[in-house]
Specification:
DNA damage, nucleotidyltransferase, 3 domains, 6-stranded mixed beta sheet, MutS, DNA mismatch repair protein, domain I, DNA-directed DNA polymerase activity, transferase, 15% strand, Alpha-Beta Plaits
Length: 382
């Protein structure tokens, strides 16, 4: 269950950066002829053309969705390019995407504490860099503002009145803004600079959210895609959360969110404001109740972990329906292949990052109800 963390005493500047349809971008860099074309990346599974794992914005205009399979996508968009993920040992090999993501992380981590959340998303704590900019070259005293920053989307700033970019520039340069917003303005400029640098050095676009905590930054990073960024001033938080469906919140998409809907009639995050902290604790316990009370107010003390590398390496393979393994020799053959891949990745990690794996876990599922998990310590041979 969610646990509330202490709120920081000082204002922070946190960014969440999400690479736009990343798998497609990687394939477009490998094959530039795909740029500007409706494209999708498909899984290593030829049933009905394979499941789509990434869809370009050009393909989305035709109605192609990630929930489709390749054959269905072709019916919707006959001209679509379907690119299969690379294959190794009869299964998908995602190394090309992992390595491309590492290129981006290397750039982003130059400006602050960096947490690699997944293969295509990163959290950044830009607080120190924003404070330094505010002291040395605050936006309100600068002769010019980095152009990409003036294209930011600022919550609660009208986008249909006057010159939008001039309005954003005026917001970034407000001399009468409070300290929190001045730091956010510096953060917006820093993120814009980083996004341009990522594009120049890797050819990848990314979208971003900039706020005072991870929760809000993550919520808005996907609001304006592709290749855009959104800023959340403190004054906009309550109105933003008021109409946000409760299931959109991290950790509220499952049973807890369903309980809020069914037991308390909560449909939006704003609905939680109708309950005292004590009442929420009564329903869900002290920790979760406090977390819900803070979440409704946009409060989150979760810190950005300084983590550039994944916590673990995972190798797996699914055998649906008729492809289910039927004998011990087939199981052994696949275990050998998975162990070979895992061994290679562990050895590479050791060589590049000087880390030694500590624990091995085997997870096997034979049906919806039959699942086994075994773990053991690894004996180092290095």
């Amino acid at each position: 269950m969610p646990v509330a963390r202490p709120e920081p005493q000082e204002p922070r500047v946190i960014a969440h950066l999400d690479l736009d349809c990343f798998y497609v971008q990687v394939e477009q860099r490998r094959n530039p002829a795909l740029r500007g074309q409706p494209t999708a990346v498909v899984q290593y599974n030829d049933w009905k053309g394979g499941g789509l794992i990434a869809v370009s914005y050009e393909a989305r205009k035709f109605g192609v969705k990630r929930s489709m399979r390749g054959d269905e996508a072709k019916n919707v968009c006959p001209g679509i390019n379907l690119v299969q993920v690379p294959v190794s040992r009869d299964k998908a090999d995602l190394n090309v995407y992992r390595n491309a993501g590492s290129e981006v992380v290397a750039i982003l981590s130059t400006k602050g504490k960096c947490e690699r959340a997944s293969i295509d998303e990163v959290y950044l704590d830009l607080t120190d860099a924003a404070k330094e900019m505010h002291l040395e070259s605050p936006p309100e005293s600068s002769e010019s503002i980095f152009e990409e920053a003036t294209k930011s989307n600022i919550l609660d700033l009208p986008s249909d009145v006057g010159d939008r970019e001039e309005n954003v520039k005026a917001w970034l340069c407000r001399a009468d803004a409070n300290y929190q917003d001045k730091l956010l303005a510096c953060g917006a400029i820093l993120v814009a600079q980083l996004r341009v640098k990522v594009l120049e050095e890797t050819q990848f676009t990314c979208s971003a959210g900039i706020a005072h905590n991870k929760m809000l930054a993550k919520l808005v990073s996907g609001m304006h895609k592709p290749a855009q960024q959104t800023v959340v001033p403190s004054s906009s938080v309550q109105d933003f959360l008021a109409s946000l469906p409760v299931k959109k919140m991290k950790q509220l998409g499952g049973k807890l969110g369903s309980s809020l809907q069914d037991d308390l009639g909560v449909e939006t995050v704003g609905d939680l404001l109708g309950f005292t902290e004590e009442k929420l604790q009564e329903y869900y316990g002290v920790n979760t109740g406090t977390w819900l009370w803070k979440t409704a107010r946009g409060i989150s003390g979760e810190e950005v972990e300084d983590r550039l590398l994944p916590k673990s390496h995972v190798c797996g393979k699914t055998f649906p329906g008729p492809k289910a393994l039927k004998n011990n020799s087939s199981v052994k053959s696949w275990l050998d292949k998975l162990c070979e891949e895992l061994s290679e990745r562990i050895q590479s990690d050791l060589s590049c990052n000087k880390r030694v794996a500590q624990t091995l876990t085997l997870h096997a599922r034979a049906s919806k109800v039959l699942c086994v998990i075994y773990s053991c310590l690894l004996v180092s041979a290095y």
